[in-house]
Amino acid sequence: MAMRDSMSTIKARVEELKRTVQFQRTRRDEYGAIISQQSLALSKTEEEAVHEREENGEIQEAISWYNRVLGFQIEGGHGVKFMFNDINLKNPKQEYSFTIRHANDDYSLLDCNPQLNGIKELINELNSTSDLFGFVRIMR
């Protein structure tokens, strides 16, 4: 009888261990799937970061070109200040600038040096077209 009880206890323990092993395998597979998903997400994020760094490098290169060749600079603050030099052949270092602000889907001119004729019409056109690039080109 003791032998039978011992065998029964051993069989129960073996069954319990089999369930534990199966549970652990299931958890391993679940964790493996999670790790695989996270690894794919990490790879995608790393690729996006590399792409973003490349784009930032290209943007910095373009900004440098605009500064060097066109004498063009941008400065942030209460509004955005656009500054130009290399316009006056007699005094290439002379700075020309204007500052605009964009709020509530509306552009407003905060400052313009020197003052230009027809600036109100240009601002109205900018507000109707939202073509900031074209506006900056005309202002230069």
From TrEMBL:
Keywords per UniProt: Cell cycle, Cell division, Centromere, Chromosome, Coiled coil, Kinase, Kinetochore, Mitosis, Nucleus, Receptor, Transferase
InterPro entries, per database record: Spc25, Spc25_C
Protein's cellular compartments: Chromosome, Centromere; Nucleus; Chromosome, Centromere, Kinetochore
Annotated ranges, domain Chromosome segregation protein Spc25 C-terminal: 76-140
Chief site of localization: nucleus
Keyword set includes Transferase: yes
One GO CC annotation: Ndc80 complex
GO biological process terms, semicolon-separated: cell division; chromosome segregation
Superkingdom field: Eukaryota
One GO molecular-function entry: kinase activity
Function: Acts as a component of the essential kinetochore-associated NDC80 complex, which is required for chromosome segregation and spindle checkpoint activity.
Family: Belongs to the SPC25 family.
Subunit field text: Component of the NDC80 complex.
Protein name (record): Kinetochore protein SPC25
Taxon lineage: Eukaryota, Viridiplantae, Streptophyta, Embryophyta, Tracheophyta
